[in-house]
Amino acid sequence: MAEKHDRHWLRSALRDSRGAFRDLMLISLFINILVLSIPVFVLQVYDRVVFQGGMTTLQGLVIGMGLIVGFDFVLRQARSRIFQNVALRLDASVGRTLYEKVVSLPLRVLESRPATFWQSVFRDVDTVRNMLSGPSATLVLDLPFAILFFFVILMIAPPVAWVLLVFIPLFMVLAWRSGHVMRQASSAERESGLNREGLMNELIAGRSTVKSLALGETLKPRWEDRHATAIESALQRGEAGDGYHNLGYIMTMSTTVVVTTVGALAILEQQMTIGSLIAANMLSARLVGPMSQLVSQWRMLMQFRESSQRLDEVFGMTSDRQEEGVEMARPQGIVRLEKLNFAYKPDAPAAIDGIDGAIGPCGMHGIIGANGSGKSTLLKLIRGIYAPTDGRVLLDDADIAQFTQRQLAQWVGYLPQECVLFAGTIRDNIAIAHPDADDAEIIAAAEQARAHSYIVDLPDGYATDLAEGGRGLSTGQQQRIAIARAFLRQPPILIMDEPSSNLDRDAELALAEALKAYAKTATVLLVTHSPALLGACNSILVLDKGRVTMAGPAGQVLAKLQPGPKPVSDDPAEQGRKPA
Hints:
Blueprint: H1 8-15, H2 18-35, H3 37-52, H4 55-104, H5 107-111, H6 115-133, H7 135-142, H8 146-156, H9 158-205, H10 207-212, H11 216-268, H12 274-315, E1 335-342, E2 352-359, E3 363-369, H13 375-383, E4 390-395, E5 398-399, H14 405-411, E6 412-415, E7 424-425, H15 426-430, H16 439-448, H17 452-456, E8 465-466, H18 475-487, E9 493-497, H19 505-518, E10 523-527, H20 531-536, E11 539-544, E12 547-553, H21 554-561
Parallel strand pairs: 3-10, 3-11, 6-9, 9-10
Antiparallel strand pairs: 1-2, 1-4, 4-5, 7-8, 11-12
């Protein structure tokens, strides 16, 4: 369930800049007042200096205008600096808040949208920043002063003022219409761009498959189709934008022509002077200019609106629990499942269907089943990164829903099916969840994962820099580093999803030995089809379509599943607690 969309994130970001916006409004007031000095200067030159030969007056006017121009430059520089500071604060505040929000969202929410969506919301922050600290913000600050210019024109050239009263509403209608059209065109352009980026992300993520199967030519039509759609959308948006921009320019020229014509007629009828006409033309340009800019800037305003709405949606999503109730002691490692159910969609079949039972404390417990039987889903429910549709997961009789993800990460070590390493050193990757871990802890975890021997054999050892995704190491080496990460801090519960999928036979046997030793003091739960790991298990649970079809001591379960000689565990705990 989403939280209320009240744009609190934007108000919070702007709260620290309220003083800056007050300064910007005050500076804009002075800048626009100083703008009046040019038409007044021209008016005085034509009406007093030219016709009356007032050289002394001209000298005074020139000196005064020099001071005004210098002061205007200082004010505009100050406004630019303030805008830069506002942009910096917005970037820091909204960007940090958005990052914290995204990483706090439940995994199911993150999986419900493509990666391009989450990438685009960070670009939306740039749109919001540019709107509130760029040319569009300057336009919004200057636009109200158009009223001031109109009243000045009304005072010095009344006939011209009535002409502007006709054109200003036309500019407003044009701006509104252009905004409506540009919003639709921009939305279509964005969607086609995201589709193209999504395909490119797939190509890059699957680059090994693309190269090994020579899929370049096969995927080329799909790429060309999406690329062509993106180009077409961009062209349509550009044509619409250019059309309204050019129409705004024509209206600006027409305004100047009509103002000059009406003003000339008024001069002939001695209703105003030449100086008044020239000054009125200059002021009308200052009045019509923002109106014309509004036509071209309306796209930015619409983009700001759409970006704000998308950010509203993200900030309105319900996060994982963030506050810890109490600090609990280290669990014993008993996992209890109470009528556990889970479905990926309301109308989809249950991925986990009514599992009930207990696992642990201690011992090594395997989960097997066909593809799609719910093995990985069950591990994610036990780890707490999926919330059950019905039922509960308890840790030492405490519902895990009351704990934060950080608390659960300290108690439940988790190795997902896809082992992901990050750019940085091997040491940093092992300790990424616990950056305060000391060297002894890191080495101990690497030794348990049987990774220490090959790490120290590298020229830079634990300081070896890894490229993005762990490039530079074999998949087996990457997996052992990920296993070391799970061992770090010796969690009382360790769950692993296919931990030996990229290991050779010797490494697999070594891992089985390490896990069997670890299971003497902790509960180890793993999804695997490895005979070596299954042979080391105390008990095995068999899943089929989300239901438990068989469970019991490892030897008995394997005997029923596999004819012929059966591996038998020598651990007496095999006859102990029955798994779920």
